[in-house]
Amino acid sequence: MSAPGSQPWSTPRTLVPAAVLALVVAVAVLGPWLSPYGYDQTGPLKFSPPTAEHWGGTDILGRDVLTRTLHGARISLLVGCLGAAVSLFIGVTYGAIAGYIGGAVDAALMRFVDVLYSIPRLVFVIAIIAVLDSHMRHLLEALHAPHWAPQAKLALLFAGLGATQWLTMARVVRGQVLALKERQFVSASLALGQSHTRILILHILPNLTGIVIVYLTLNMPVVILEESLLSFLGLGVQAPMASWGTLISSGAAAVNPLKSYWWLLVVPGTAMALALLAMNFLGDGLRDVLDPRKTG
Fold first, then answer.
1. Residues of the chain whose pLDDT is less than 50?
2. What is the maximal distance between C-alpha atoms in the chain?
3. What is the rounded distance in angstroms from the CA atom of residue 64 to the CA atom of residue 199?
4. Which of 212, 210, 205, 169 has the alpha carbon at shortest distance from 186?
5. What's residue 291's pLDDT?
6. What is the pLDDT of residue 10?
7. For 189-205, how does the pLDDT look when each residue is reduced to its tens digit (9 = 90+)?
8. Which structural domains are found in the chain, ordered by start?
9. How far apart are CA 276 and CA 270, in angstroms?
10. Omega prior to 240 cis, within 30 of 0
11. What is the pTM of this model?
């Protein structure tokens, strides 16, 4: 019988989705530089289907859809990474504090999580963005920097999505900390005079690395999907920037009963689906590798 968490990392369940995800990231980073077309470069061919010249077709302004999809991948992946990182920091900190202190503090903190769980997540994100967006615009106008509005809206997306995705992480971390703080190494550290903060940071949190990594990889697709939905509704990424969500929204607006410009939906939709599937399969593979209950 193998030791807990000793399953090999070099298995198809981890290597294949990791390779696909690495390919998606590499194409998103390098693709726009290799493309002969600019992000907003218009052309005479409007609503042209995929050809040898434009592999992903063109949109209503004659812009290359594949090039715009590669640019949109940068924004979507950035939102997914940073939004998941925000939720990771909040969830791990909140759950670790609640689990380690325990008692009435733990009960109060977890009831607050229950209250947040009762609020529809997307409605909460929209409320955060709506409230902060007006204040951000006034601040930018006072600083005479209205041109920073798209970047400020992107920062609000990071904060809003991260502020709603940490609840599950907090519950998982809290449960693990409740179990770990009863272990002998914690009692030994207390006997040696180490502070509670030192014990929590140096001894307990490192034991949560595996489960945190798994939930991080599973959380990123959720953040990307919610960003895409918000952008589809016009509440996410703003022009001149674009994400997979805004591209799909533009493609959906161009579809009508008389003429279906299918490539406007298929190209960015396929790219997003490929990235999300790779992240989900990678998270499942890592869960099998890092779960100490799965032993051979």
1. 1-6, 293-296
2. 77
3. 55
4. 205
5. 60
6. 66
7. 888 888 888 888 888 88
8. 12-31+59-290 (1.10.3720.10)
9. 10
10. yes
11. 0.79
**Which two structure tokens, joined as six digits, stand for 118?**
């009762």
Amino acid at 285: G
Q: Look up residue 113 and give its amino acid.
A: V
Give the residue carrying structure tokens 């914690």: 186
**Three-state secondary structure readout of the chain:** CCCCCCCCCCCHHHHHHHHHHHHHHHHHHHHHHHCCCCCCCCCCCCCCCCCCCCCCCECCCCCEHHHHHHHHHHHHHHHHHHHHHHHHHHHHHHHHHHHHHCHHHHHHHHHHHHHHHCCCHHHHHHHHHHHHHHHHHHHHHHCCCHHHHHHHHHHHHHHHHHCCCCHHHHHHHHHHHHHHCCCHHHHHHHHCCCCHHHHHHHHHHHHHHHHHHHHHHHHHHHHHHHHHHHHHCCCCCCCCCCCHHHHHHHHHHHCCCCCCCCHHHHHHHHHHHHHHHHHHHHHHHHHHHHCCCCCC
